Amino acid sequence: MAQIPYLDVQNLTKSFGSQVLFDNISFSVSEGQKVGLVAKNGTGKSTLLSILTDKEGKDSGSIIYKNDIKIGYLEQSPKFNHDESVLEACFNHDNSEERIIKYKQILTQLKIKNFEQPMGQLSGGQQKRVALANVLITEPNFIIMDEPTNHLDLEMIEWLEGYLNRGNKTLLMVTHDRFFLDRVCNTILELDNEQIYIYRGNYSYYLEKRQERIDNTRSEIARANNLYRSELEWMRRMPQARGHKAKYREDAFDDLQAKAKQRIEDRQMRLKAGNVYIGSKIFECQYVSKAWNENEVILKDFYYNFARFEKMGIVGNNGTGKSTFIKMLLGEVKPDSGKFDIGETVRFGYFSQQGMKFDDQQKVIDVITDIAEDIDLGKGRHMTASQFLQYFMFTPEQQYNYVYKLSGGERRKLYLCEVLMTNPNFLVLDEPTNDLDIQTLQIFEEYLQDFPGCVIVVSHDRYFMDKAVDHLLVFKGNGVVKDFPGNYTQYREWEGLKAKEDDKAENKNKEQKSDYHNVTKRKMSFKENMEFKRLGEEIEQLENEQKLLEEELCSGTLSVDELTEKSKRLPIIKDELDEKGMRWLELSELS
């Protein structure tokens, strides 16, 4: 017997004035399906979720939910009573003792610890996390979420992945986080050209099958164009001779014409900003310290010499000081001690979390031409403001829309274009991926890979970080910052190996200690005594070498090859120290 879907959508249509968002789309979500909805900014993803949750009306079509299912909905920008405490905002559902304990556990995982704090004192990101906790605690049968990973740090995102993958949860969500889509979703819905396309697999499967669909569509359009030319010639050649028997051919011609005029977005050109010069001196972070109070230490005597053409990612949990570090670099926040010495040729382009300031009555094209009429790509090449916008998928029609008509994601994309149009040689990007669609992110990744200047990226988007940066500063909290020579995936793999080695050493140590207690203690032989002394000297030498290596890796003066080579040496030293240390401990029991 066929399973009754949790949600069945049939022939759904929605438009705003002359703009059609989707036309007669149909899909369903069954129990246990984890569905990701992807589309370009401004094509109606959030609107579709609002319609499905009865927050907004539809033009036509039907939306049917299975009887008696409980739905949880996470809005992109949730609203709360500002006077309510965090717990009061959560207890609108159930204030039983069991629920209170579970609420506190989930809120703690999402780094919300002051349960009595008024909601009005929380940042937008903290409010989004409270809203997420609200959805999860009610244990709905069907969870609908709009950008659930926005404002979560990497640790929270990984926790949420695990939470959603446990049990037989049913999900429909909009997210730009491609790692999250890949690890959580088993079905992808793509909204494109007013239609819905269904891919029964994760994000990697979707990419493969989407390309097949685009290739097939291109072939169909090419065939239609060839046939269209011959049919057009027939239509023009015999206007008077056509009788009623040819009427079917005329009707078929109209369909053929529509297919031939379809357009598939094909961006074969990569935008390479060649006319960017930056000197050899970028910036030197000279023993900087910063703390908001004794419990919020950002940096302690931190030194770093930023190299030319460096592309750095900054990662760490929320509250460890990533954004503060950037603001100190840009001169917006003063260090407590030390300073940032910045090269004279450096021109920053800063894309911040709160940087969007537009005149809503301006047209999109005017926002960009107010900065420059064109951008110099070097070697005599120029790109006009309109071409630049089109490269970032603002169609000529959209360019003459007023800013107030743009969706949240389109406004973020316009802000990105605004920053890039200033032609900076050092891009500083604080959470640049929030609310940008996947296609824009792919374009931006290409731009950064070809960018001949310097880049610093603060982001929780693991996929984006892997594409855009070649090494990391890891903010651990309490002023501890580690330099890692690799991307985010490599860092997590290294962390995992390190944790396994630590566990292995600890277990070995416990076993050895247990064995020592079970045998009669004997005296150390002459040979063992000599080995004991030699081990002490070797351990001291290895510890000195380890300390020197760590200082060199944090100095910022090493080349990529040197960084790689010295990074390989560190775990070898650690293994030797573990091995020699264990033998030293064993012999010390006999002394």
UniProtKB/TrEMBL annotation:
Region forming the signal peptide: none
Residue stretches making up the ABC transporter domain: 7-226, 283-502
Membrane spanning stretches: none
Gene3D superfamilies: P-loop containing nucleotide triphosphate hydrolases (3.40.50.300), Valyl-tRNA synthetase, C-terminal domain (1.10.287.380)
Residue runs in coiled coils: 525-552
Superkingdom per UniProt: Bacteria
InterPro entries reported for this sequence: AAA+_ATPase (IPR003593), ABC_tran_C (IPR032524), ABC_tran_Xtn (IPR032781), ABC_transporter-like_ATP-bd (IPR003439), ABC_transporter-like_CS (IPR017871), ABCF_ATPase (IPR051309), P-loop_NTPase (IPR027417), Val-tRNA_synth_C_sf (IPR037118)
Assigned keywords, A-Z: ATP-binding, Coiled coil, Nucleotide-binding
Name this protein carries in UniProt: ABC transporter ATP-binding protein
Organism taxonomic ancestry: Bacteria, Pseudomonadati, Bacteroidota, Bacteroidia, Bacteroidales
